[in-house]
Amino acid sequence: MSETVTYLWVGYDLGNAYSQISCYNEKKNEVDSICLPGKKNAYEIPTCLCKNKKDGSWTYGGEAPADAGDDVIFIRDFLVDYASEPVLSAGGQTFSKKELLFEFISRSLELIKRYYPHGKPQWLTFTAREYSKELIADLLEFGPKLGIEPGCLKIQQHVASYESYALCQPKELWSHDVGLFEYDDEGLSYCHLSINRRRSPVVVTPVSLDLSAYLGGEDYKTLAPPELDRRFLGVIKEVLGKRNVSTIYLVGRGFLGNWMNLSLKQVCNNRKGFIGQNLFAKGACYNSMLEATKTKNQNFIALCDEMVPVNIYLAVTRGRENLKIDLVKAGSDWYNIRESAEFILDGTDTVPLHVRDFVTSQEKVIPLTLDNLPDRPDRTTRIRMHIEFEDSRVCQVIMEDMGFGSLYPATDKTWKMRLNVVEYEPAKNYESSGRLILNREIANQAPYYFNVSGMKVYSVEELCYYIYENIYAVTLETFNEELLYWLEKDMNEPVLVKGIKNLMRSGGSLKDVVRYLMNFVDYYPPEACKKLLAIIDDLSHQNPTEAKKLSADNLIRYCRYIEAIRGYCNVIYDMEHGAKDEVTRDFKGNTWHNLGVAYTRVMNFESAKDCFKKAWHLNQNEESLKCLLWTAKLLGDETTFFDAVENSSLEETEVAQLVEAFDKVEADSKSSKNDRMKLIQYMYEDTSREGFAAKRDAYLQGLKVWYRGEKYS
């Protein structure tokens, strides 16, 4: 029969000489200190290991005697110089301190089974006097190996554990400030908790004093009790003075024994006093309880050296809303901060980072300028910001160019900044320009594909950009069920889809739908939206022949030349029959010109020449004349070339320049320096059918990549 698992909240005080473990007892609503087997009130577990040379087995703590003989290796001090000296030598062998530490922690945690046979640590908080970055990283790495779920392991210094302990006591014990004296082999120290009840939640700020000059680490072992008592009494009077302190805690081996007579009376003068050896382990355990029950920071915020003392946020827009995106909250542990945000730059190359001091409420702006941004139109650069801390004051900000979907591919451009968010002095009279458009929540990073253009969009903002830049190809049919399904399911925009559907059901026009979309997303400024809606108005007044030409223009724009040719032929038929009086000579000439361009793209130069000739005859446009002359040169048709020159108003120098430009292009296309020509020659060098086909396909794929990159990036 399986037993029900009891989930536990654990605190672990990690020390080089001794360690302690505490566990929260929900039934008693108090903390149990875990003792060594058979040793009541023996909270201190010697931080040491013993390896048996014969069978390789390990024992720890009290089970690892230093005088076990030559058959064992006794190992201790594996926390000393943890970062600078990662290995340790003992008994003629070399050990990794990281591996030794995990061995000790994992084995010592088994002590909890004696108290809770079916218990499993759910939340674990490590505490120590101080940590190196390497020790923090290793302890966080140990979490999964110890069975701790991600996000359920915390690391804090003794000061933070002291705060957790003190503030989890009855409120009368911290109705005013709280003090702690710690006395051990490193000497005497004092930590004062200033309780600011005028703020909600209550703000707790620690101030530490090193008092080892008054009582050193060896003094409690060598000085006579009366002298110890006299010195400590003097320290109490000097440190506490007129401070309004509710409770004083005394911790450390230096306070063992009965030497405090006068000093203890002074400690307890109109205040509570407690002496103990397991305050930090219990404080770490209380922290686990607060984190697990999500009650931390609801009643108080306890600041200390490992906690960031400021709030950091970005001011962004989303639709018509102005929002604040919290990146860092005051009271967060610096080593746990790994925050990211994505936004689009609109009219700016600077990202204003807002920093607000939690205690003073003073706010400043740190402008982060992104030098040498990729050359793109406005609102087509998406930035991903990542922020993490080196310590409680210094952070690293990394920003990365994410491009704009397939419209403007991402580059490898990154910007890295190192900031002291506390000491930074803001520039005077700084005013931010432009705005940051928040990247909307996306349920599924699946693109929507436009069949006509062959383009893909990956976000609502990209959809707005595509519609704005391709408005001549957009109709009500563009907003089909497939697009609306993509918006609702993949883009997580059910409200937007509902609005569009309601408009279309009620007979709304293309202008109504586009206006609603643009206002909802708020990607373009109002003046740009007005310009777009004016274009839609103009398009709505076009006659059918103009609409057909516009459709063919869009096909040629998206390289669908055969379809474009059919479209232009239909337009020409209309021009020469029913609609001949509805269009101008320029319109007719431009239609023939565009048809000539389409024929050129499919290398039908003879038909292209005839089209350009008719176009020039109708519109007298120099661009049509130039295209006529170039196609005549391509075909070697000197008669057409000279007839066109003779009937034009071109000067002799202009003709010479035109011929010179043509000859240069022709020479470059045949040059061995031309990369594409090299690829063609390389392709034809392979005489096998399979080899030629493979090189041909690779060449064509390369042309596609080149064309799309040149056209859209």
- Biggest beta sheet summary: 6 strands, mixed
Q: Which structural class do the helices and strands define?
A: alpha+beta
Fraction in beta strands: 15-25%
- Report how far the terminal alpha carbons are from each other: 66 Å
The mean pLDDT is 87
Task: Give the uncertain stretches in residue-range form.
Answer: 709-713
User: What's the helix count?
Assistant: 22
Report the C-alpha radius of gyration, rounded: 39 Å
| Form type | elongated
Helix-residue proportion: 25-40%
Question: What is the total tally of β strands?
Answer: 28
In brief:
This protein has 713 residues and is α+β, with helices and mostly antiparallel strands.
Can you walk through the features of this model?
The protein is 39% helix and 25% strand. The protein is α+β, with helices and mostly antiparallel strands. Strands 1, 2, 3, 4, 10 and 11 form a six-stranded mixed sheet that branches. Strands 16-15-12-13-14-17 form a six-stranded mixed sheet, covered by helices on one side.
